[in-house]
Amino acid sequence: MAEHTVVLHCEPCGSCRFEAWQHVVDGRLRWEEQEYCPAYAVQACGGGWGPPPPWVRERIVAAEGTVRLAVGGPDGVPLKAVRELYGFTLPQLRAAREHGLEATPVEAELLCGMRGGPRG
User: Fold this and answer.
1) From CA 21, how far away is CA 33, in angstroms rounded?
2) Measured distance CA(105)–CA(24) in Å, rounded
3) Backbone phi and psi for residue 53, each to the nearest 5 degrees, phi listed first
């Protein structure tokens, strides 16, 4: 469940800043976001467990890039881990198995830890 805290709001301006990041806490994926405007002294933040919402993930990918992971098989991350982390349907999981998975570096670290081997 996502958590949100909002303190006021301003029109976006050149002073507005947005930060987004992921980390692993107790073996679980966590995301955080913060928007702030030093010109108007306003701030908004949010966070949650699991993969971030698309608009947050887009900013993380833009800043950190992605890592292509093999899914399933002896050299890939476990299908069960991918399905549990992303909530994939069976067709989505099949596509990830066939084409690989573009994960953020933190997602890759978590998934590879479940595999017990190096990143692919």
Assistant:
1) 7
2) 11
3) -60, 155
